């Protein structure tokens, strides 16, 4: 299984877009490239290429390293050097290391696949959602949440505390956890407030995602008691391939959902290599979705994705039943 977004992108290539028996022409870097538009000499290893593949890197061709696409302006085969214009077709400058892969005229640019992965993750909500459990110390009034990505929280779905004697206001530690009432409050971003010490504090979220600050109010629990609140949460928008799936909120079972959606999105409305058609067709046959054309490949992928989504929804409903909500207060 994948550990980060880059691994998930690689898995999409491996299982759908680039079958092992049809790997595109490639070479590797012999020297590093800086993230600098003036560093335009790409030194490659010719031993990985046939003479025809090497000639394909003539001026006007594109090469790809990482997510960066480069336009070839000159080719020196004797020196094994390509002169390029950096970061074209909407890609960004990146630093590249020795032995990084060089793809020649890629059919499925990595930046496109990465963007499709981000689109598919974002579109999972509200059909599916992430969850996060936070430990909150009860106090009078609202409790601002200022942790990383707390602006992605949507609603509490479960809250418990070791607070068991509601009438006496006592805390029977170690006896039993019971549900308590909690409310999630949306605040403007940035939000300024005065803390218990009388110091003015400001919370600002500048990352991607909802433009809001969240706060929690806990009811019928004395100040100082710990309350564990599980929240429904939007998936965090990826910004780099190094972002982990745990940070994004993706569970292992969601990977096939993302991959099927990405493959369908990437091949929509375009001709694709016959080897890729065959590879996807075989994968769909294993899932009992026979296909025989580019159009039906896309439809079969989307049908397969819908079935996986429905299975994931049933699992979420079983694990996290919707709480009773009265006047915006959740009672688990």
Characterization of this structure:
A hairpin with a 5-residue loop joins strand 12 (191-194) and strand 13. Helix content is 27%, strand content 26%. The two termini are 33 Å apart. Helix 3 (110-124) crosses helix 5 (255-267) and helix 6 runs parallel beside helix 7. It is an alpha+beta fold and 332 residues long. The strands form four sheets. It has a six-stranded antiparallel β-sheet, with no helix packed on it. The chain has helices at residues 5-17, 51-55, 110-124, 245-248, 255-267, 274-286, 294-319, and strands spanning 26-28, 41-43, 62-65, 68-76, 81-85, 101-104, 130-137, 143-145, 153-161, 178-179, 181-187, 191-194, 200-203, 213-219, 226-233, 324-326, 329-331.
**Total number of beta strands:** 17
Rg on CA atoms, Å: 26 Å
How many separate helices? 7
- Give helix % range: 25-40%
Query: Order of strands across the biggest sheet?
Result: 1-6-3-4-5-2
Largest beta-sheet details: 6 strands, antiparallel
Mean pLDDT: 87
Give the N-terminus to C-terminus distance in angstroms: 33 Å
Q: H/E order of the elements?
A: HEEHEEEEHEEEEEEEEEHHHHEE
- Strand percentage lies at 25-35%
The tally of domains stands at 3
Shape category: elongated
Secondary-structure content class: alpha+beta
| Uncertain parts | none
């Amino acid at each position: 299984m994948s550990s980060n977004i880059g691994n998930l992108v690689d898995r999409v290539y491996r299982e759908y877009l680039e079958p092992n028996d049809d790997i595109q022409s490639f070479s590797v870097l012999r020297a590093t490239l800086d993230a600098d538009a003036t560093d335009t000499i790409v030194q490659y290893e010719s031993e990985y290429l046939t003479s025809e593949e090497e000639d394909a890197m003539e001026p006007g061709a594109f090469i790809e390293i990482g997510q960066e696409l480069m336009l070839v302006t000159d080719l020196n085969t004797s020196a094994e050097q390509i002169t390029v214009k950096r970061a074209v077709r909407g890609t960004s400058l990146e630093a590249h290391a020795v032995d990084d892969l060089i793809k020649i005229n890629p059919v499925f640019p990595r930046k496109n696949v990465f963007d499709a992965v981000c689109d598919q993750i974002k579109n999972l909500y509200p059909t599916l959602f992430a969850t996060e459990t936070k430990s909150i110390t009860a106090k009078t009034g609202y409790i601002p949440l200022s942790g990383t990505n707390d602006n992605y929280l949507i609603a509490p779905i479960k809250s418990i505390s070791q607070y068991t004697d509601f009438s006496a206001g006592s805390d029977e530690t170690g006896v039993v956890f019971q549900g308590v009432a909690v409310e999630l409050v949306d605040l403007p971003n940035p939000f300024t407030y005065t803390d218990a010490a009388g110091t003015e504090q400001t919370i600002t979220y500048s990352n991607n995602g909802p433009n809001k600050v969240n706060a929690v109010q806990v009811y019928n629990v004395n100040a100082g008691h710990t309350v564990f609140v599980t929240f429904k949460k939007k998936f965090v928008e990826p910004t780099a391939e190094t972002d982990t799936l745990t940070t994004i909120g993706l569970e292992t079972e969601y990977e096939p959902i993302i991959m099927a959606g990405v493959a369908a999105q990437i091949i929509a409305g375009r001709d694709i290599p016959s080897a890729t058609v065959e590879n996807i067709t075989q994968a769909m046959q294993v899932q009992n979705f026979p296909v025989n054309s580019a159009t039906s490949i896309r439809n079969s992928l989307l049908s397969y994705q819908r079935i996986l989504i429905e299975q994931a929804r049933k699992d979420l409903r079983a694990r996290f039943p919707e709480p009773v909500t009265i006047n915006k207060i959740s009672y688990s």
